[in-house]
Amino acid sequence: MPAVYLKDRSLIRVAGADAEPFLQNLITTDLAALAENEARPGALLTPQGKILLDFMVWRDGADLVLETDSDQRDSLLKRLMMYRLRAAIDLKAEDVEGVTVSWNVARIGDRKDAGFAKAGVDLSRSPGNHGGDDPALYDELRIANGIAISGKDFALLDAFPHDVLMDFNGGLSFRKGCYVGQEVVSRMQHRGTARRRVVTVSGDGALPATGTEITSGGKPLGTLGTVSGKRGLAIVRTDRAGEAMASATPILAGEIEISLSLPAWSGLSFPTGVDEASA
Fold first, then answer.
1. How far is CA 140 from the centre of its chain?
2. 3-142, superfamily in CATH?
3. 195-278 has CATH 2.40.30 classification
4. How far is CA 20 from CA 37, 59, 63, 116, 140, in A?
5. DSSP assignment, residue 110?
6. In this structure, are residues 37 and 112 in contact, taking their beta carbons and an 8 Å threshold?
7. Which of 126, 162, 213, 227 has its Cα between 20 and 30 A from that of 198?
């Protein structure tokens, strides 16, 4: 029953009569589907559909709370204030420091992480420090289940929500009304043009460092994200990875031969033939 304190997480409270409609018109998450004891992934996109800022969102009574990386907190708060205009809302950075994630244990008042739930993992989030286990355990859990986070696995302004499986983890809505970047991600969804996806990387020996390029036959596939021993995460071009697999061309992280696997919970698969992969 591990409990890991994530010290580099911060909270923003969105309160007031217009809190929910205000956020509903801005972020990727469908708040109408957000349960009381649930935390869902979410993002604020650029007009071009890329992830500008990302977070978890949950309810606290009539308020909404955004949990984000501490390095993003001020930028997110500033961006929300820019959009506020005359909305009846109050935006405030919470004083509490960090968030504790725990799994395989039930705690009253914790919010169940919907992204991990999709992967079949019962993980909860709660403000403050309630755990002393090694943070590496959380990284290992993310790697095993294909859960990517910004800063470690992808750079903001460089990834679409589809790249990090937000179309599967409850963080990206295609049914609610318009929000910033919605037209682009909806077009990607309906046309099936998403080509980059999160994968788990495995090697026979220790993987090289985060940021190492992944290649096959001289072609770039992606870049290593979080690494833990022989396993890691990456966001890769699935079409190029499928082509490499179909032609038995080695896939390399630096000079290390690796294998790639898509998260089983996503239902995705690599293209199975050279023609399909190159389409």
1. 15
2. Probable tRNA modification gtpase trme; domain 1 (3.30.1360.120)
3. yes
4. 16, 10, 8, 24, 34
5. P
6. yes
7. 126
